[in-house]
Design a protein that fits this description.
Blueprint (H helix, E strand, L loop, with lengths): L4 E3 L8 H30 L6 H23 L6 H20 L11 H12 L2 H18 L10 H4 L2 H81 L1 H4 L2 H27 L9 E4 H13 L7 E6 L5 E4 L1 H17 L4 E8 L2 E8 L6 H5 L16 H12 L3 E6 L5 E8 H4 L7
Parallel strand pairs: 3-5
Antiparallel strand pairs: 1-7, 2-4, 5-6, 6-8, 7-8
Helix pairs in contact: 1-2, 1-3, 1-7, 2-3, 3-4, 3-5, 4-5, 4-7, 7-9, 10-11, 11-13
Amino acid sequence: MNRPTILPTAPAEASAGRRNMALLIQLRWLAVGGQLATIGVVTGLMDIRLPLAPLIAAVAMLIAINFASLALLRRGRAVTNAELTAALLFDVAALAWQLHHSGGLANPFASLFLLQVVIGAILLTPRSSWGIVVATLIAIGVLTADPTPLVLPAPYADDPMGLYLKGSLVCFLLIAVLLVAFVTRISRNLRDRDAALAASRQRAAEEDHIVRMGLLASGAAHELGTPLSTLSVLIGDWKAAPAIVRNSELQDDLADMDAAVRRCKAIVSGILMSAGEARGEAPQLTSMRNFLTALVEESRAGRMPGTVVFNDLFGPDIAIVSDPALRQVIGNVLDNASEVSPEWIAVTASRDGGMAVIEISDQGPGFSDEMIDRFGQPYSSTKGRPGGGLGLFLLVNVLRKLGGSASVSNRDSGGAMVRIMLPIASVAAEGEPA
């Protein structure tokens, strides 16, 4: 079977700010570990005296900032540009404080300011990014004013430049690794955010399209009500006409006409009831099995016996509130299937946890690759008639409002299949367990 195309119910909205804050927390933990390791190597192996109290205080401040950032993430809401800016400013201040007590700009790790400038340029707005640049320049200016010099022991005091170059090499490697590791992840977060924003704009355009279609359909339904009522009256008069009463063939034709007009009136009434909201304005209490059975029986009306097969695998029935809009869009899928496969349609109802699964299969030509790629988009149809392709579009959007989803695929044995995933809780009657 071809891999189905699934349209998600609700676009995942990206929380790039939260993920970027999480990356900053990870970077800060690495900084804490690296600083403690550096202090241990410098004081233990290299025997260089360092003012441990202020350096350890800076590490403690970074740990406190991390716990505050974690508390910020636990709120569950988006992280703002101001909060990211504040976090980076704390990092700049901590680095400046440590450098001030370990040689100032003579310390090769002063180049770490560049890492914070690059991260700020990627994460923050232009104004905030320049704010980080200004903060680093101020920090560098402060470091030129009476920093605490390092007292080097004899092996290093003879060649301080050699020690500086070795430290610069270590700093370069550290910056390069961190930039590759973190900036690429940050860029991926930003790409995910842009994709989510594009999906949100697409959904907004689709919902605006649905509103306009709903207004048009509502107006058309009002306009069609009068002629349909007139046709119904005329058919009733013809049935009672003496010249037609005795003609059984004409009576059968009039009965078919009357059934067709009643169905049109029911469709018009359904449009008027469900215009605007996914849950119609006149919901009815029923059960899931009765709801599905009614859809199948309506599809079977006027067709040869055995052409619509209903596989009821749903299990224990459950009370639901019948949704006219949902009934209509599923009926549209059945109508589409009957057009391409008049000899056979299969409807399979099952249950997967809290989801009702409805599969509608046919023996038609199936979906083209283009149709599968454009699934859920308006006016995507193989029928080639103006205004076609709205059935699946409406299905997807009605399901989206109910928290469900739909997918399409081609069957191995030929034909197409539309799979509907409907959260039972979204239609369950009040007090009914999902």
